[in-house]
Every structure is written in C-alpha cells, then in structure tokens.
Amino acid sequence: MRVSLKGPQPSDTASPDVYEEAQYAERDMHAVWQELRDSGGLHRQRTPDGQEFYAATRYADVREVLGDPATYSSAYSTMLTVRGDGDVAAGAAIHLTDPPLHSEIKRAFTPLMTVPAAQRLEQGITDRMSELFETVRGRESFDFCEAMVTLPMTITGELMGIPQQEWTTTGRATVRAMGGADPAGSEYQRRFELFEAHTTIMTVLGEVLEANPSGDTVSGRCPVTAQVVGDEVRDVALLNAYAFLMGANPTVPQTINQTLILLASDGDLWSWFTRQERTGQRFVDEALRWASPVNHVLRRTTADTVLAGTEVPAGSLVSAWIASADRDEAVFEEPYAFLPDRSPNQHLAFGVGVHRCIGQHVAALGMRIFFDLWRKNVRSVSLGGDPGHLISNFLNGVVCLPLTVTWK
C-alpha cells in the first residue's frame, strides 16, 4: 500500500470499501480509513461474494476487539479473504485458537521468545545480516526487495530451524502467499500463484519437521502442539510451524521496506537518522506504527454484543483495522507524520492482549540490527523508481523497491 508523506488527500476517498484488494497496490488507504473513523466507529460492509462483515477503524474499538477473545474469537480466521468454513488451521494453530488452548500452545514456545532469548540471538543475526549486506555493497542501484529476499530469514531462519539453502525459496514464498504482485494479472493467475506459494512453504516445513529439528528451534517444539490440541486428523505440528513462519517473515521486512521509502524521500529524517549512534526502540516503534504491516485481523463474535454503539449479532465477522487505529487522531498527535522519537507510542502493530505477537522481541531486535547496519554502511539513499506494492487487503507489502545508494 502506498503511504503518502503528506497525509491522506481528499481525492483519494473515492470509495469507503475496505475489502477490494487491487486498490491496496495503487492507493493510500489512510484517506478511506480516516473517512470511516470520522463517520462512525463501526461500518457494515460486504465482500464481493456477498459476505457481510463489520469494519472497526477507531483505535478504541480495534483495541476492544483485540483485547476480548471471549467475545471476539480467533478460532475461525484472521484474514477477510479466508472465510467460508474458516481457515484450515482454525482451532489448531497458535494464532487461530482462543484461551485456554491458545495459552497452552503458547507455553511451548515462550522460552524461545523472551528478551534474554532474543539477546542470545543478537550476534548470530548481526553476522548473517552483515553477510547479506556484502552481497549488495558497491551496487549503486538495485531492487532492495529482490536483493534482500533472505533478510527475514537472517533473523528467523535459524530460530525456525530452516536450512540456509531454503532461505531464498522460503523468503519469496512467504510474501507471495499474502497476495499478488502483478496488477495486470488475472484473478485465476493470482489465485494459482497463492496456491503455489503456500504449497512451497508447506513442503519446506514438512521436510524440516521430518528431520527431527532441535528443541531449541520453533520447528523442534511444534510437535508438542499436536499433543496439546489432540487433533488426529490434521497435521497440527505443520500448521503451527506454518503459522510462526508466516507471522514472522512478513512483519520485519515490510516495516523495513516502508521505512526505507520514507528515509529515501525525506531528507530531514535521513539527516536525523544518520546522526544517531544506535537505533533506539522509539524509532522501531514509530516504524512499526508508520508501516502497520498487518492492515487488519479478523474475528468472529461468540455472542450478541455491542461495539461502538452498534449491535453486533453472534457469529458476525468483525475486521479490526490496525493500520487505521495506528493513525487515529484521537490517540496520536500528528498521526501522519513520522516522529522518530515519538513517546508515548501505543501502536497496535504487534496486536494487544493474549494474541500480542509472541515474537515481538526478536522482531524488534532484528529491525534495530538492520537499521544500525544501514546507517553504518550507507552514506545516502534515494528512490531509483516507483515502489511496487502487494495486492492484498491483509499485508501492507512492498514487492519492488528500487534504490539508488551511495556506500561508505
């Protein structure tokens, strides 16, 4: 999705529809979300196939939905594009379960995701990311997305237990599995490419699990989830390995991509950035708020409820628009400005409550390491062309990022 440096423009608000996916590759949706926030907190909309859903766009309402798993269940689907009978992993994967089952699954992975655990990964991530930087050093112009396709795997690859020879394949597939890249392509072609990407990921992870990975890796702990869930039909270990990979890989690179677009376009911000000795957590938090890499998450109500003054029947689909909440004027001063030292910054990019991202500490560490290396190695950066954006209402993705770089 394009993110305007000047904030939403009135001409962008041609339609209040938040579902239609192609628009996310072409326009800045913040104008639409602002219009919806201004006209009320909850909006009834329909998907192209006629499925009704509610869109929560204000910060307070999004936070209420995310913070109340008893009323707004995750055990159906987290994406608007996956409806029908629900996600194939519903009720089995960590992000598609509610307490107490969710807490039992989470317990198996928590020791790998604590602050001390993340700190133990720092040197390895730094070394792998430095090696990746060396592959582009000296190139004045390149597509960052293509050149850095393994960037997320330098952070999560070893933690997941995925062999390095699979990092390129896996890195490409995790982005493609979220949406299309070619606006001119047919719907059939796009759906086929999504299927192919999901199949690729499942194949790689299946081979990893068959190799009995170490218990110090996410994949090595996934078999425990099968015992916890007790589902004899589905491959619960594989579904959870998939959930972790798809949760980890898109967030970090897409936050970095959107921030690099900003750094390459805003001379004042670049000047501020280059004067810092190290990347602080406030900068990372603002990058996460700015990018809000996950546009929305989906929930289904378990009982009749009232949200934003609107009666919502049991069994309703409610989409919580995180990207909209992270620009809510009622919460954030100058929401359309990137303030690198913003405080407080209660962004919702990692979610909130029981489903707050379990890998947040590892993700934040990876972003700090990247921006430190970028500052250390790059003298200047500018856009070498128009970025290309993912066709997806779920992930705020960049699929092509031409950069012109002067190296130190």
TrEMBL record:
Alphabetical list of Pfam families matching this protein: p450 (PF00067)
Q: Gene3D superfamilies of this UniProt entry?
A: Cytochrome P450
| The keyword Heme is assigned to this record | yes
What are the coiled-coil residue ranges?
none
Keywords in alphabetical order: Heme, Iron, Metal-binding, Monooxygenase, Oxidoreductase
UniProt keyword 4Fe-4S, yes or no: no
The entry's family comment says:
Belongs to the cytochrome P450 family.
Q: By what name is this protein known? A: Cytochrome P450
What is the organism of origin for this protein?
Streptomyces andamanensis
The uppermost taxa in this organism's lineage are: Bacteria, Bacillati, Actinomycetota, Actinomycetes, Kitasatosporales
